Model the fold of this input.
Amino acid sequence: MSKPVNGWALGVAMTTLFAGPSLAADDVSILKDLTAVIALQALPCGQVVRVVRQGENDYIASCQDGNRYRVSVNSEGRVVALKQ
Done:
């Protein structure tokens, strides 16, 4: 995937991820969005199966393969997934 397309896809995924007001109401879509964000950053995951919200735009995602990532927005406004 080219960098412009990758950036666009990440932007769409993050807009969807952080637009919802309630984690409980959008549980399934949050799982899918976090799965997409982690995959776009080429990190191993498979599928996100559990999410814990740490704060606004800050999540801990647990993957079906056992990996855990903290997905948040950094100071530059970029979405990052850091292995936990």
Q: What stands out?
A: The longest helix spans residues 3-19. The mean pLDDT is 82. The two ends are 26 Å apart (CA to CA). The CA atoms of residues 19 and 57 lie 9 Å apart.
